[in-house]
Amino acid sequence: MKKHRIKRSILLMIALVLVLAPLSLGTRLNSASAQQESQGPLSEARAGTSETSNGATSGPGRISKDFEDGTLQGWFGRGGNEILTVSPLAAHTGSYGMQVTGRTQGWNGPQLDVTPIMETGKTYHLSAWVKLPAGTPSSPVSMMVQRTTGGSNTYEAVKSVQAGDSGWVKLSGEYMLQQPIESLAVYFESFDHPTLDFYVDDVVIERAPDPVPIEIQKDIPSLKDVFAGQFKLGTALLVNEIKNPNGPDAELVRKHFNSLTAGNELKWDATEPAEGQFNFTAADNIVNFAMDNGIAMRGHTLVWHSQTPKWVFYDSNGNLASKELLYARMKKHIDAVVGRYKGKIYAWDVVNEVIEPGDKKPGGLRNSLWYQIAGEEFIEKAFIYAHEADPDAKLFINDYNTNDPVKRQFLHDLIKRLKAKGIPVDGVGHQTHIGIEYPRVQELDDMIEAFRDLGIDQQITELDMSVYTNDTDAYETFPTELQIKQANRYREIFDVFRKHADQISAVIFWGKDDLNTWLRTFPVVRNNWPLLFDERLQAKYAYWALVDPSKVPVETKRTKAPEASVKIDGQAEAAWNVAQAVPIQKGGKTAATFKTLWDAGHLYVWVDVDDATVNGNDSVEVYIDGNNGKTNAYEADDKKYTFRRSGANPHKPADYKAVKTERGYRIEASIPIDGAQTGKEIGFDVRIRDRSGSAEELASWNDIHHRQDTDTSGYGVLTLVEGPRTAKAARGSVVIDGNIDEIWNKAEQIVTDRWVSGSSGSTAKVRTLWDDHRLYVLAEVTDSLVTKRSANAWEQDSVEIFIDQNNARTDSYDGDDGQYRVNFDNETSVNPGSLGANLTSAAKRTPTGYIIEAAIDWVGTPPKAGNTIGFDVQVNNDENDDGVRDSVAIWNDTSDRTWQNLSNIGLLTLE
């Protein structure tokens, strides 16, 4: 697996492009395709390098620049102020390369006219090597294209990399020229670093071989048929994807989908860019395609804070429009758009993304210009006008992150208020842009269940799954293990959708294939593969996971067992609090959860089974592969242990206790293991056998094909790890003012003395208190130089507090989990943003650093005395005021993933 790192910050240019085209910037020959990363490393043997011949070369469809003749070979400064020099310092191969200095703006850099080799409809490989001068901090450098068509310039990103001074980094990507051009140039920039100097060498631009014609797989099941009788199965697309109605893109849509959403073409900026000037050309093409092919058409979106022209919100004097003027414009727009497609569009997203708890407005409403002018009433008016324009259309309120309990509750309550007033809200749309790990499947189950009481329709409106867990990783090709992981996650999620088929009328993907996805440019430019079909419209494992899961290889899941000892009595000793509860999914629900611990000679297993139907032959089966050999047949170290619900044979061959619970039963067991030590990995699986008469059902944690009795290759991996640190929080309340009140003296002190990054720097002495409303944290930070030079909050001198209120220790954040950051100037940031109102803080400078005092409100039901919560605290430090974080000191979890994964944090017991 080849992976590289890219900076979290997003180029401004890319951000602007995303606002204009949030669904996709890349398709096949009939659509725009500039920002695509190469699907594999390009050949490094090329003319003009030491691997072939010296000197710059060009020919039909090819340009190579290596600067070996001592000239710039046609490169010039874009801004006129740049200093371009042929220098030995800039040589990647040979004797010379191009040194770039004198930049004063982000878009400044070297540019080369490549018009002569460009041909419309062709794809080009672009590659170059970049490096930074000695002593320059790591910074992004981008390879860009400036295209001039119809007298207008368009700027398109090919690839960005994080360059450094210690070695050369290769930029490589693909560019497909879709439109006729007057000219086209390639250039390099560092948009966020306008004065950055850098080196460039060995630039190659060459036409790629014409691709093999794409044909869809006609002999595989149609998705719309697989889910017939349950819900519509839909996709979003841009009009250029169906420009050729007989092409493979259109053919894929016809075969697999029975609901169609226009990604951009029905938004306000597309249909009415200037007041009273409507343009329905693109929208008509999509709607007509849907009608011609018997596909139900869905409208997206009428009222949104984004992609709405500025004129909508301002009067002729440049002042904010009056409520009356705003409503008049809204009604005219809705009448025109909805009225035009009356009887053709079955459902509309009437308002989109109106909930934003972080804005701290009543009802959790987003502080948009709509809200600033009209308050909550604008939502009512939008639904009323839409219903008047087409009484038969189903009207939805659509939003993202509806799995977040705080945001979800605000949305639920808003719909309830609207329904109580008789406002015609027919359904709620869950966008469901998710990741390979977040949110947990159970959260999606809870999301749908939360709206059941409203008696409204529900749709999954914008489903996709990023293969990343952060904004910094980027893969050149799609790793097989991630393909399998994505497939199994899609299967589990669709099990939930099937479970709620009585509530869900449609599941719609935000794009039909991996080339046509907004996630290739958001939040950064990189490859991504979030959908069911690949770039050539071929079915992925993710498709087969929904159609025939037996075609998907077994995923190797991983979990950890902390070191601790317990007594086998079926009782929840405190030691079990350090272990993560791992779910076992079956048919859209959690069939069981298990925890593991270890000590010298023993593996302890705790399994809670959800099974209200009692059968004495129900059992939990635990599988151990001592050497993690993953073989197709059992070896001497491979063992199976059966623990029956009845409690039969309690000491043979392992000690266990079976206990009846409110929802089923519990097994606590001690299994003998050899060679137990920190870091040891063993093959491991848990299978639940649920018997009812002669029938039985199996649910496995890892091997979903249930071949564990003879084959260990499908086992997961259990790693034996050190147990987490523990501390206690004294009961008490304080005023948050940055002063160390007397009550803090009774609190236990912990220290951030473990290093996530760096080996020295700022640390903190930390104390905690709690009451029925919140947790209080006092951090006394030792820091010789406080700075917030970086624009990135996490690179500023600050304290971060991590809370896992229910101590679920999950691999991604649940609704009760939060990351709370406060810098030395008392500037705060919270993840997720919906919990922003829960943080109250104060900061005060001291002779040796600074103090952070914070109060964090409990989420939902507060914990009680004796409860243990997940807790950690870290100190971020920029040691030399250069805007780069030099060290991170933490109390417990050194994984550098606490901001997204709480499975390794410490424990705080409330006294």
UniProtKB/TrEMBL annotation:
Q: Which family does it belong to?
A: Belongs to the glycosyl hydrolase 10 (cellulase F) family.
| Chain positions covered by the region annotation Disordered | 32-66
Q: Which Pfam families match?
A: CBM9_1, CBM_4_9, Glyco_hydro_10
User: What Gene Ontology terms for biological process does this UniProt record contain?
Assistant: xylan catabolic process
Pathway per its UniProt entry is: Glycan degradation; xylan degradation
State where composition is biased (Polar residues).
32-41
Keywords tagged on the record = Carbohydrate metabolism, Glycosidase, Hydrolase, Polysaccharide degradation, Repeat, Xylan degradation
Q: Which domain of life is it from?
A: Bacteria
**Which Gene3D superfamilies does UniProt cross-reference here?**
2.60.40.1190, Galactose-binding domain-like, Glycosidases
Q: What class of enzyme is it?
A: hydrolase
Protein name per UniProt: Beta-xylanase
